């Protein structure tokens, strides 16, 4: 796909991100940014830190060092005796509501119907009028192809339908950036395509997306940029043609040879 | 007099008195259950997230209250409370035995007893929460209070409902023990009737039937609530 | 602040109630167990009449307070004293101990029946089919397959039921029996030192509760060897 113009502003950026769990260093200085409208596929074997990277962007994990910037707002930090914490909880909530997250295991709220899942945050976090949220939610559900499931509970949907509902839930917040954390890894093979189709449509609309995935075809055909993570560092970063055509990193070559 | 006249609503009938006493039983149980919910939620919170001393305190509370007869707890509160109050009254120059309001003692006792059971129910339901759904709430920018109200509380309540139904049934039947303090609830009223008419079997049978009616209604109510709450479960 | 002499005297006085509490517990657990087996059998294998009777029994005794049941038997049956005397049963119903034992047995029997039924219903069908497939006769199948599997399923709930019987024996004090709670109530009324007496009496009950928990754990380990931790196997020299 045609990459967005390099003059467009950055929608999201991290600089020199470090994160460890106990003795295990998961991120060792990651710098990455996405311009508005850019689709970045993040590849890497399990344990490479790619999910942790996404979770640091909306602060589900707190990185020990480095900057996180969403739009023109950088997260403010406050030092603690051990490490640091975000200085302003309201800022964290504000930034999270601008970043849509789609999880591997969907994480729909099981006590609410599909429609209720979609309008929950717009009504209660963003405090928008309910009627408008419902109308918009119905349009979003139609867009992801499950308009007829609006009054179903998540447990009564297939995995693919649940994931599309979760995408509608993320879109309802009008996010500036969409984060996808292995969105098709928990799905039966025959359900993967329906979710990828929705994601491709979103990319074509010009949404800013960071996608952690194992779907090589998606990375090659839909993403503007491909990033390969290995042991907490970025080993490859470039347009898919360049990265897949002439990989510079030996590890990425091995990764491709193993089939991702 | 025949049993029917005795338990009827005419002259010399005890029907109205028994029904009023059944209402007292219900009020006692409801207040005790509410008090127990507050205590139980606090104890569950202490067990799950509190500092070590709080956790130990909550563990002692639930272990002791679930291992010691409820009657003993009622005696402790009734006599112990009166003694404590008498001591305080003594400082202000009052003398003699100070009686506590029996309804209050009953509510406190039932609350303390059922709180120990409700704590376990709440703890189990909280442990059964799906972490992913909480993470999704954080990811859309819900602050703690909103997440507690819109996601955690409804999910916990749904899982806890069957357990709470059991605790309620136990509590209803336990409320009969409060009759030892002299509070005129259902069993006490039956005792009074039995004493003054010398027809104990008739009165205790009537009381038993009323308890059975209340517990059956409760079973029905809880199973309806569970059906409602199970919406959305596979 | 702590009056050791008073505590010692209290413990000594309460000790006299221990045999009554334990006797009532053991007696009603045994009789209640037999009743429960009968009721569970009636519900599972007995045809409509035994099933209906067992249902009614469980419904009535689980739906009313134990204290009402005790009063009904001890005080209530006094209303029929002449007929009971004529039947030669008055000697039994005159005694608070036997009345308490009867009420406790009937009560715990109703709860235990449901626990037993649940345990039996939880036996996997496949295990029974497998038994039949290798030619086990009914009784052997019941004894070697059904019973052990049902018992381990029902054991935790049954342990809780035994503990609640221990606690329930305290209600015998309301019909003049001097078991632990009855003695404790007398001591409190005499001394007005509710907390000290409560702590001593509570300690007795907790001790019994812990013994029951220990027994249930031991029974669990015995019935469910597959749930024990794996024995550590020493690595063999190559």
TrEMBL record, chain A:
Domain ABC transporter: 12-256
A GO molecular-function descriptor: ATP binding
Keywords: ATP-binding, Cell membrane, Membrane, Nucleotide-binding, Transport
Pfam family, one: ABC_tran
Location within or outside the cell: Cell membrane
Keyword tRNA processing: no
Membrane topology: Peripheral membrane protein
UniProt similarity note: Belongs to the ABC transporter superfamily.
This protein's name: Octopine permease ATP-binding protein P
Organism listed in the record: Methylobacterium crusticola
Primary gene name: occP
From TrEMBL, chain B:
Database matches in SUPFAM superfamilies: MetI-like
InterPro entries: AA_ABC_transptr_permease_3TM (IPR010065), ABC_transp_permease_HisMQ (IPR051613), MetI-like (IPR000515), MetI-like_sf (IPR035906)
Transmembrane segments: 71-92, 98-117, 151-171, 201-222
Domain ABC transmembrane type-1: 22-222
Pfam families per record: BPD_transp_1
Localisation: Cell inner membrane; Cell membrane
Keyword entries, A-Z: Cell inner membrane, Cell membrane, Membrane, Transmembrane, Transmembrane helix, Transport
Membrane topology: Multi-pass membrane protein
Main subcellular location: membrane
The keyword Transmembrane helix is assigned to this record: yes
Family of the protein in this entry: Belongs to the binding-protein-dependent transport system permease family. HisMQ subfamily.
Name recorded for this polypeptide: Octopine transport system permease protein OccQ
Organism expressing this protein natively: Methylobacterium crusticola
From TrEMBL, chain C:
Pfam families: BPD_transp_1
Subcellular location: Cell inner membrane; Cell membrane
Membrane topology: Multi-pass membrane protein
Coiled coil: none
InterPro entries: AA_ABC_transptr_permease_3TM, ArtM/GltK/GlnP/TcyL/YhdX-like, MetI-like, MetI-like_sf
UniProt keyword terms in alphabetical order: Cell inner membrane, Cell membrane, Membrane, Transmembrane, Transmembrane helix, Transport
Domain spans labelled ABC transmembrane type-1: 18-217
Residue intervals passing through the bilayer: 20-44, 56-77, 195-219
Protein family membership: Belongs to the binding-protein-dependent transport system permease family. HisMQ subfamily.
Protein's UniProt name: Octopine transport system permease protein OccM
Biological source species: Methylobacterium crusticola
Taxonomic classification: Bacteria, Pseudomonadati, Pseudomonadota, Alphaproteobacteria, Hyphomicrobiales
């Amino acid at each position: 796909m045609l990459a967005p113009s390099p003059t467009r502003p950055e929608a999201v950026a991290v600089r020199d991100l470090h994160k460890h769990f106990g003795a295990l260093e998961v991120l060792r200085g990651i710098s990455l940014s996405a311009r508005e409208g850019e689709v970045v596929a993040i590849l890497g074997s399990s344990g490479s830190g790619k999910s942790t990277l996404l979770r640091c962007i909306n602060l589900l994990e707190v990185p020990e060092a480095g900057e996180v910037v969403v739009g023109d707002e950088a997260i403010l930090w406050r030092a603690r005796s051990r490490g640091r914490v975000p200085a302003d909880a309201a800022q964290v909530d504000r930034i999270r509501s601008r970043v849509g997250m789609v999880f591997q295991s969907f994480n729909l709220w099981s006590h609410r119907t599909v429609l209720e899942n979609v309008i929950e945050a717009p009504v209660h976090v963003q405090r928008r009028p309910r009627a408008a949220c419902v109308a918009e939610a119905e349009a979003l559900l139609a867009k992801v192809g499950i308009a007829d499931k609006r009054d179903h509970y998540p447990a009564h949907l297939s995995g693919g339908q649940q994931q599309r509902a979760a995408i509608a839930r993320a879109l309802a917040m009008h996010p500036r950036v969409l984060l996808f954390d292995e969105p098709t890894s928990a799905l039966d093979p025959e359900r993967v395509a329906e979710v990828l189709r929705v994601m491709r449509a979103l990319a074509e609309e010009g949404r800013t997306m960071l996608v952690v995935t194992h779907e090589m075809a998606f990375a090659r055909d839909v993403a503007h940029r491909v990033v390969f993570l290995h042991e907490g560092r970025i080993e490859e970063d470039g347009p898919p043609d360049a990265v897949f055509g002439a990989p510079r990193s030996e590890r990425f070559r091995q990764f491709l040879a193993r089939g991702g | 007099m025949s049993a029917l006249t005795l338990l009827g609503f005419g002259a010399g009938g005890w029907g109205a008195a028994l029904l009023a006493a059944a209402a007292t039983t219900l009020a006692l149980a409801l207040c005790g259950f509410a008090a127990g919910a507050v205590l139980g939620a606090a104890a569950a919170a202490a067990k799950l997230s509190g500092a070590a001393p709080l956790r130990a305190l909550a563990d002692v509370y639930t272990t002791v209250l679930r291992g010691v007869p409820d009657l003993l707890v009622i005696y402790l509160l009734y006599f112990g409370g009166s003694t404590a109050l008498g001591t305080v009254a003594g400082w202000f120059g009052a003398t003699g035995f100070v009686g506590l309001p029996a309804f209050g003692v009953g509510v406190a006792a039932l609350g303390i007893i059922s709180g120990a059971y409700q704590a376990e129910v709440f703890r189990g339901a909280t442990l059964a929460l799906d972490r992913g759904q909480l993470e999704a709430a954080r990811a859309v920018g819900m602050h703690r209070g909103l997440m507690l109200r819109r996601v955690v509380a409804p999910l916990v309540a749904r899982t806890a409902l069957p357990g709470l139904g059991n605790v309620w049934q136990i509590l209803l039947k336990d409320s009969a023990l409060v009759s030892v303090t002299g509070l005129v609830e259902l069993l006490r009223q039956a005792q009074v009737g039995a004493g003054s008419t010398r027809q104990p079997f008739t009165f205790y049978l009537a009381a038993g039937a009323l308890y059975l009616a209340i517990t059956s209604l409760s079973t029905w109510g809880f199973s309806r609530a569970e059906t409602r709450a199970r919406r959305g479960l596979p | 602040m702590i009056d050791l002499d008073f505590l010692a005297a209290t413990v000594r006085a309460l000790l006299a109630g221990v045999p009554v509490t334990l006797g009532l517990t053991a007696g009603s657990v045994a009789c209640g167990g037999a009743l429960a087996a009968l009721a569970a059998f009636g519900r599972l294998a007995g045809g409509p009449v035994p099933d209906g009777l067992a249902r009614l029994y469980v419904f009535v005794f689980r739906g009313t307070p134990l204290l009402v049941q005790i009063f009904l038997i001890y005080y209530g049956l006094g209303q029929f004293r002449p007929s009971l005397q004529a039947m030669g049963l008055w000697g039994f119903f005159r005694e608070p101990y036997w009345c308490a034992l009867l009420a406790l047995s009937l009560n715990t029997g109703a709860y235990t029946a449901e626990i037993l039924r649940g345990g039996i219903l939880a036996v996997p069908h496949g295990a029974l089919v497998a038994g039949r497939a290798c030619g086990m006769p009914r009784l052997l199948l019941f004894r070697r397959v059904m019973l052990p599997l049902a018992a381990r399923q029902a054991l935790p709930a049954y342990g809780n039921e035994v503990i609640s019987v221990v606690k329930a024996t305290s209600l015998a004090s309301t019909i003049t029996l001097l078991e632990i709670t009855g003695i404790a109530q007398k001591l409190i009324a005499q001394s007005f030192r509710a907390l000290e007496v409560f702590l001593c009496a509570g300690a007795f009950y907790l001790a019994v509760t812990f013994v029951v928990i220990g027994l249930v754990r031991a029974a669990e380990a015995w019935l469910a060897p597959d749930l024990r931790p794996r024995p550590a196997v020493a690595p063999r020299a190559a």
